Structure formats: C-alpha cells, structure tokens
Amino acid sequence: MENHKSSTIKENLTIFDVITRKINQLPQAEWNLPEQGSAYVGFNAALCGLIANSLFQRILNMAQALIAADLPMAVIPFLTTNTAYKIWILYTTGILHTALHFFPLNNAIYAMI
C-alpha cells in the first residue's frame, strides 16, 4: 500500500512538471496574448459600439453632434470590456493556475496522512 502511495505522488509531480515545461515552451506571441487580449477585445467592443451608433444615427437622420454621440459609444464599451476581461479572465486564470499548481502537493500531503 505504501509503494502505491509514493508512486502516485511521483506520478502527480511528474505530470505537473510536464505541464509546466509545455507552458514554458510556448512562443512569445502566445505569452503576450493574455496581457494584450483585453485591448483586442476592448477595441472590438468599441468598434461594435460605433457601428451600432452609426446605424441608429442613419435611422434617426441625425445631422448634429455626431462626434459627441460617437465618443461615448466607443469609450464606454472599450472601458467596460477591458475591465471585465482583466477581472474575469486574467485574475480567474491566475487563481486557477495557482490552485492547479498546489493540487499535486495537497494530494501528496493528504496521502501521507
């Protein structure tokens, strides 16, 4: 029984080492994507806001204050999407990565008890 526990601990640690090594082998472009992904998604939301605003302006036949109407429709979606992306994607991923990092160690400690 003891041999089984120690081999399971070694297997968990080696699997974690393989996953860590694979993550570290990713190209630089894929490392930068989580950092700059919020800007990409934010610009996409701003573009969608501008397109929607343009359609409403054409439907309502607006001729005045076009820039004043476009500015909030570009800035507000960009800021909200950028903030939401950073909160939900980056921080959640960081928490999950931390949890997965210590999962094999917790199993090893639990197996010793």
Automatic annotation (TrEMBL):
Location (main, coarse): mitochondrion
InterPro entries hit by this protein: TMEM126
Organism of origin: Piliocolobus tephrosceles
Function: Protein required for the cotranslational protein quality control in the inner membrane of the mitochondria. Associates with newly synthesized polypeptides and may act as a chaperone that cooperates with OXA1L for the insertion of newly synthesized mitochondrial proteins into the inner membrane. Required for the assembly of the ND4 module of mitochondrial complex I.
Chain ranges passing through the membrane: 59-79, 85-103
Protein name from the UniProt record: Transmembrane protein 126A
Pfam families, per the entry: TMEM126
Membrane topology value: Multi-pass membrane protein
Keyword Lyase applies: no
Amino-acid biosynthesis keyword on record: no
Listed GO biological process terms: mitochondrial respiratory chain complex I assembly
Keywords for the protein's UniProt record, in alphabetical order: Membrane, Mitochondrion, Mitochondrion inner membrane, Transmembrane, Transmembrane helix
Family label: Belongs to the TMEM126 family.
GO-annotated cellular components: mitochondrial inner membrane
Subcellular location: Mitochondrion inner membrane
Subunit structure: Interacts with OXA1L; promoting cotranslational quality control in mitochondria.
